[in-house]
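Input chain follows. Return structure tokens only.
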Amino acid sequence: MTSENDERLDPRQVRTRARVLAAARTVLRRDGLGGATIEAIAAEAGVARSTVYRNWTTRDDVLAAAFDDAIGPPTTADATRPLSDQLERVLTELARSLSDSEWGRALPAVVAAIDAEPALAERYGRLTQERRTALSELLDSAVDGGALPVGTPVDELIDALVGPLFYRRLIRQTQTDDAWLTRHLDRTLRAFGARATARRAVRRATGPTPAR
């Protein structure tokens, strides 16, 4: 994710910052939090320690910026599309990020790091809350529009939609394909009482829901 600060930098500085942030994720994934020192990150990036310190004050600042850079912006909602289509897009992008992106590959190390360092946990929490807020606004709009019942516990619905993707990635270490995603979305929307019109695209994609 490109920041406003990056847009004001010389292109060579932008490339150097990107290389350092990628190196920070690599070192964290390979060596864990204890091995993710400024020295190790600089060596992995092929730059001097002074280059790192010109951009960030501490090791935790570098790692926090690396998290921010890897996660990317929230998925933009499209109010013209049915709820199921919008949710399928969100879940598909999340599943692909978990399996294929640098962020997904580093996620186990990131979880361990934020468990050990409160400052990193606070920064990562703010980043993930931005994405949760975007999804919450989408679901609140669905309640207002009648696609979901009044009183739908939106936080619980978000957990039910997103939680299994992290479980499959971190615990089961299994791939999540499109067929599983559409079945999961259909079952979850049914469980939370979504109107049939909100699930129409999902049913069309999956056919009859298979027996569990």
